[in-house]
Design brief:
300 residues; alpha/beta; 2 domains; seven-stranded parallel β-sheet; four-stranded antiparallel β-sheet; 9 helices
């Protein structure tokens, strides 16, 4: 097994993979969105890029963001495991830490791990300056839409940093061109690197998945919420221009007949999926069956 050779990465610790180093080569030169399936090593790319930036800019800092505290702590543990940097130079920052102490930590520590909400609040309250941060990593970058904290932070970062570089990490950037474009625009992304489990340089590292389904009984409070959501959705469905003419709910299957479907018909049945899933239905397939007045959709 080959290992990454870098003065800021512990010897014989981080496996060298061609596809990761290929993505790294582009991330060194561009603000990049890295799209990799879960379990194929997005974090090692951020570790190698952090080492590169700290070697190039020794007095700079690194900011690693993740949507939740458990993910933030996970990144901290992984960086600590592989980076040849003193533990005292790394710090997890959360909203539970006093704002005055957070400000001091931002000034003293070299690598900061935090949730985006904490950083956004501290930017607004002038508790942190992004001037010396040479790398911003946004994990679960597909959240970079709407009013989420990532777009706000990225814009401030590109404006304030002396040597900016952004790396976005995600396994699921979105199913539409418009959403991916919005993510890239909000993060200042210049290049997208995508790998799938079928790519030749990735397949040797793909592990066989063993999936075990565990059925969990919902508590009574959850069942009440599920029933309310279901009733609300059916009522909304009936108010559409292409209203439901036939609805039948069985144990784990729904039949929905929709008449007079026009061009927006497909949009309507797609909206059924997440809503019906919230109602506790195990959706495995959607089968359109043509009928006289429109379509009958079997969802199970």
């Amino acid at each position: 097994m080959k290992y990454v050779n870098h003065p800021l990465i512990k010897p014989d610790s981080l496996e060298s993979r061609v596809y990761q180093e290929s993505i790294l080569a582009e991330a060194i030169k561009n603000n990049l969105l890295c799209v990799l399936p879960t379990g194929l090593g997005k974090t090692p790319i951020s570790i190698m890029l952090a080492a590169n930036r700290l070697e190039k800019y020794p007095d700079s800092k690194i900011l690693i963001l993740a949507p939740t505290r458990p993910l933030t702590n996970q990144h901290y543990s992984t960086f600590l495991k592989f980076l040849n940097i003193d533990k005292e130079d790394m710090q997890v920052v959360t909203g539970f830490i006093n704002p005055g102490i957070r400000k001091k930590l931002y000034e003293e520590k070299k690598i900061i791990f935090a949730t985006p909400q904490t950083i956004q609040n501290d930017l607004k309250n002038e508790k942190v300056s992004l001037k010396r941060f040479s790398l911003l990593v946004t994990d679960e970058a597909h959240h970079s839409i709407g009013k989420y904290s990532y777009p706000f932070i990225a814009k401030r970062y590109m404006k304030e940093s002396e040597n900016p570089r952004i790396l976005g990490l995600t396994a699921s950037p979105g199913g539409s061109y418009e959403k991916i474009q919005e993510i890239c625009q909000n993060l200042g992304i210049e290049l997208i690197e995508i790998r799938t489990e079928k790519d030749m340089d990735v397949t040797p590292y793909v592990k066989e998945k063993q999936i075990e389904w565990v059925n969990v009984e919902l508590p009574e409070s959850f069942r009440k919420i599920r029933n309310l959501l279901y009733d609300a959705y059916i009522n909304k469905l009936k108010s559409f221009k292409c209203e439901a003419e036939y609805v039948s709910l069985q144990k784990n299957r729904v039949w929905i007949g929709i008449g007079n479907i026009k061009r927006d018909g497909h949009w309507q049945w797609r909206t059924m999926i997440p809503c019906l899933a919230l109602c506790g239905l195990n959706i495995r397939a959607i089968i359109p069956v043509s009928i006289k007045l429109g379509y009958l959709y079997q969802i199970y």
